[in-house]
Amino acid sequence: MMTLKDIHGILSSLFIMLNKKTLILFRIEFLVVLSTVLFLAMFIMDIFRRYHLHNSVMKAIFSIFDAVSDSIVTYLLGAMQTTPFKNQLFPVWGLVLVILRYSVGFISGYGVPDIGGRRFTEWRNVVKLLGSAFLNWTRGSRFARPLWSLWALQIVRSFYRFWCHIPASNSTWHGKSSEIISESMRAHHEEMEGHTYFVYGELVELQKPQYVLHIKESPSPVTLSMILDCSSELKDKDEINDLSLAFALSRLLRCRLEGVQLQRAIIHDINRSPVKKIIMDDSDDARHTSKIMETQLAFVNDYFNTRFPMVFWRGLGSLYISLLLSLVTIGVVLWLSLDIVKVYKPPEHELVHVVNGVNVDMIITWVFMFFVMFKEIWEMVIYLLSDWTRLLLVCAFAWQRSSPRHRDNPYVLKKLISSLFTSRITAKRWHGLLDQYVFVQSYDYITEQWNWMHNLTTGVVPKRDNGAKPGDSIHIPDCVRSQVLKKLRALLDLDLQEKRNSDGTVNKDGHCLPKVIKTLSDVRARRLYGWACFELHTSSQVILVWHIATSFCEMALAKEHNFALDNPGCVNWILSLFMFTSKQFLIDVDQKKKKKKKKKQKQKEKEKETEFMRYLRSCFADCCSSKSKEVKKKELPEQVVDLYVIANSLSRYCAYLLVSKPDLIPDSFLMPKMVFQTTVKIARDDILRHCDSLESRYTKLRLEAYIAKEDCENVKQGENVVRQGALLGKLLLDNEGVEGCWEILAGVWAELLVHLAPSWNAEAHKKCIESGGEFITNIWALLWHCGIDKSRLWPVDDADENNGCVADPRLDDDDDRYTLQETVPQAEAESKNQQIQNVVHEEETEIVVEAEEPESSKLRSSEPRGMDTIRS
After folding, report:
1. What is the DSSP letter of 631?
2. Basic and acidic residues: which segments have biased composition (predicted)?
3. How far is Cα 377 from Cα 384, in angstroms, rounded to an integer?
4. DSSP labels for 35-50?
5. Distance linking the first and last C-alpha atoms of the chain
6. Residue 182: pLDDT band with limits 50, 70, 90
């Protein structure tokens, strides 16, 4: 039996052992290497922050690494100062650690607005540099000159970066851009028709006697029209035009995000012009439109969340200063490295770590020197290959071609522009992902373990609500981009027609999307399904009803084509651990593409085969063929595949917005959370209770759909979202068919996303841009450029008082508030329970028949057809 005295002796011996000089040196070396690896990984990831840190877990890991590494550096500076032995390399290690720590956020440190005051981290770096200077001064060093030179250079860089924020904030194309654009458009909006948008180089002065801002004509500012006129002389004309247009639009969008008001007439007459002529008329290529919008948001993100504006506060001139500082740093590091090689020979009284005659401390130092030089070279490459450098070179070329003094052919500048537009680190300006959420797969999710991590990390890991387990993100399919852009164009064309007055002029007061779902424009479709768009009380309810209906139709389609109704979320999670891919939806739509490739390969192989080989292969196939009857999965028709992908992708994405990004949808404040939590409670505690598989949930939803169809009007006017979704799904299946319903679902979801995009809450979009942005933010920005900031499809709420949108006729009804209470009388509830029991018995009989004959036609033969008893 171990006594307290024995435990005390073990702990004492442990601390004594840890205080041995060799173990102290080993501990310092280990932490130095660990922190260096962390800094290097975070440094490289910084340029890809908006691509790879879209996931909340990855952002949390990055934040934890940042905090841990910062603490390690502080500890090491104190530990190396207080060691009972000397080591000539400790001052070098301390300084290099501070340099690497300082370079982790060399891009994403802070932006021009810097509301949180993150620029003061430069002073924290200066304090750490003073700590390393004290270490160098007290410990002494044989290579003091290069070490002190490197230290002084880092002090200069810290002060320069801190000072750069001041001129960037006062720059006419950064901090003062929104005010200048607003004033210039107000005073000279007639001259700005077409493409006369400021890109770079405008200088302002106060003009007397009104003391208004006036743009100087000499030197003339570079405008979008100047670039479009001269871009034909350059090799990459299309990319140059797109980049210039994206930056001009980003400066206009910053006016909205910074709260600078533009007159309504300006937005309609001027702001709409380049979007309609250059983007909206490009009907054949949705990727081109998306690329311009993504580049625009990338520039906006750089302005608000990165140091790029500070690097380019004076254009190419300030870029040269940053490059010069990096080159000087590389030179001083090389000087220090050579001095270490020439001078450093550890004295006998110094403690060093030698293994088999190899000085480990020297290896660590050389790795340090390599990392510092790599960091500086990488930083220069990032600056040179950025979109900002490309844009400034194009502006320089446009200014030379328009200037009477510099009209000679700038051959060198042309070659430089061409080389920079063909060389890039990554072509991605946005992560291109659609986050997904499936209600019928996640409503029973309990968040105890996740929220335990939330509490453990003190809020770094975001909190989740019960039932709010997100699915795996998917890359945006091209068919989704095309469908959304197609519906957006159609709504904008209709919007333009509605805004014409009797005299043919434009109605400046109309800045709302019309209350129209063109997919449901015919009388029959509107009568059957229009209630789920126009008669529900909130956009949150509309999203959930259509989402549950889409999942219901997806499960029916999977059953029709003999796909198992299993939960793909668990499978995706397991396969993701081993870096495998898995199906995104219940039906594997990628399988068809793989089969086509296999067929082509088989055809090529058959062409090469001889007749004798074909005979042997056929005999072998006949002998090895299994006689057991297996149910084969049916392939989806080609015309259904794209519609299925569009509807499911957008349905799950809109549900994700409702659950995880409620500020991006039109409902105000707590409404999305209230609707979602009530729907989860109804599903978990009532309708889908004890349904532990997707198969049982599908069966129960079918039963609910039967009952809801018998009491159609009350269900439509009620607040039971699960029952409304089941009813809508059954109406779609009964009237359009298992495959035909997807055309309506794909069209409705694309239009719903467009109607959800206009929002008064620009702050929410600005916040999400920092983590990469959302697909809906691209649509929101595009609509704002077209003068649209509201949709008449949704009721006007108090949060939108300042936007002055036309009142929704639904507000005249008695049911103008969303109540979360069931009002079914007791007698009616008892009769419905009896009906459910009867239908359960019929359903069990149907399932037996289905097991014998999988065709859905026999399953549907027992269901009531038509809509004779339903009157909308």
Report:
1. P
2. 855-872
3. 11
4. HHHHHHHHHHHHTTHH
5. 82
6. confident
Two tokens, residue 33:
């290497």
Overall average pLDDT of the 848-868 stretch: 37
Which sequence spans correspond to the domains of the chain?
A: 21-171+314-384, 177-311, 523-565+635-861
Condensed to tens digits (0 to 9), the pLDDT of residues 6-25 reads 666 655 554 455 567 777 88
Cis bond upstream, residue 662 (ω within 30): no
- Which ranges constitute the DSSP H helices of 737-854? 741-756, 762-769, 775-785, 826-852
CA distances from 795 to 255, 756, 806 (A): 27, 12, 10
Q: Residues near 143 by Cβ (< 8 Å), separated by ≥ 6?
A: 92, 336, 339, 340, 343, 344
Placement of tokens 């590494």 in the chain: 69
Place of tokens 């009769």: 831
Is residue 355 classed as helix, strand or coil in its secondary structure? Answer: strand
Helix (H) or strand (E) holding 105: none
d(CA 335, CA 91): 16
Angle at 655 between CA 651 and CA 658, to 5 degrees: 145
Type of residue numbered 845 = T
**What are the φ/ψ torsions at residue 252 (nearest 5 degrees)?**
-70, -40
Backbone angles phi and psi of 658, in degrees to 5: -60, -40
Query: Taking Cα atoms as reference points, which of 569, 562, 532, 566 lies closest to residue 549?
Result: 532
Number of alpha carbons in the 13 Å side-chain half-sphere of residue 154: 30
Question: For residue 270, what is the DSSP state?
Answer: I
Amino acid at 50: R
- Segment 775-824, tens digit of pLDDT: 999 999 999 988 888 999 997 654 444 443 333 333 333 333 333 333 33
User: What is the spatial distance between Cα 231 and Cα 414, in angstroms, rounded to a whole number?
Assistant: 10
Element (H, E) at 354: strand 354-355
Amino acid identity of residue 459, one-letter, is G
Which residue(s) pair with 355 in the sheet? 358
Cα-only R_g, the chain: 33
Give exposure, 237-266, as e/b (b: 16+ Cβ within 10 Å): eebbbbbbbbbbbbbbbbbbbbeeebeeeb
Residue 519: which of 511, 509, 529, 505 has the closest Cα? 529
Whether the model pTM is above 0.85:
no
- Alpha helices by DSSP H, listed for 711-825, are 712-717, 721-736, 741-756, 762-769, 775-785
**C-beta separation of 396 from 316 below 8 A:** yes
CA-CA distance, 548 to 545, in Å (whole number)? Answer: 5
Helix (H) or strand (E) run with residue 369 in it: helix 360-384
DSSP 438-506: -HHHHTT---HHHHHHHHHTTTSSPP--TT------EEPPHHHHHHHHHHHHHHHHHHHHHTB-TTS-B
Instruction: Name which of 555, 794, 783, 569 is nearest 668 in CA terms.
Output: 794
In order, the DSSP letters of 190-241 are TTTSSS--EEE---EEEETTTTEEEE--SSPPEEHHHHHHHGGGSS-HHHHH
Residue 288, both tokens: 């081109």
